[in-house]
């Protein structure tokens, strides 16, 4: 998007014309190698099948090493982010566990209780872009398929049995 807008922006600046404001780009951002999860301090880029991200309305982003840490962050944003509030969230993404491609977290499906262990070798919530792929994974690896809205605080608390406790 920036590459498309850059020529017009430069031309407007050179001609002294006012630059019209555009809607915020809330697309997922590339997770840099040095980026650390605000919840646990791990490096999300090292486990791309587990990565999650929030893009805020100001176009900044927070990246997480797993869906569980994404939900922990959203459950207590004041603890992990002093600059943003829930109302500042523009978009939420998770990586599809199979393809590693970004998908809208609110439309994703999560598998609770599977054999797959997260980045810290503890229970987590592998995410999938479609219900059929999540169901196939659950059939092969165990677990129950949940929609975004079904991942409650109690679900996250139930996953605290591993070393990824907060």
UniProtKB/TrEMBL annotation:
Residues 1-23 form the signal peptide. The keyword Signal applies. It comes from the Bacteria. Keywords: Signal. InterPro entries: N2O_reductase_NosL. This is Nitrous oxide reductase accessory protein NosL. It comes from Zoogloea oleivorans. The lineage of its organism: Bacteria, Pseudomonadati, Pseudomonadota, Betaproteobacteria, Rhodocyclales.
């Amino acid at each position: 998007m920036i590459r498309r807008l850059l020529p017009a922006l430069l031309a407007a600046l050179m001609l002294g014309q006012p630059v019209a404001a555009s809607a915020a780009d809330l697309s997922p951002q590339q997770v840099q190698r040095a980026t650390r999860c605000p919840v646990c301090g791990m490096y999300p880029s090292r486990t791309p099948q587990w990565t999650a991200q929030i893009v805020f309305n100001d176009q900044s982003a927070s990246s997480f090493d797993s869906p569980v840490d994404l939900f922990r962050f959203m459950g207590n944003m004041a603890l992990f982010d002093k600059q943003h509030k829930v109302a500042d969230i523009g978009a939420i993404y998770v990586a599809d566990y199979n393809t590693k491609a970004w998908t809208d977290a609110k439309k994703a499906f999560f598998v609770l209780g599977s054999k797959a262990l997260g980045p810290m070798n503890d229970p987590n919530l592998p995410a999938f872009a479609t219900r059929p792929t999540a169901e196939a994974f659950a059939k092969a690896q165990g677990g129950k398929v949940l929609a975004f809205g079904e991942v409650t605080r109690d679900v996250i608390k139930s996953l605290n049995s591993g070393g990824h406790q907060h």
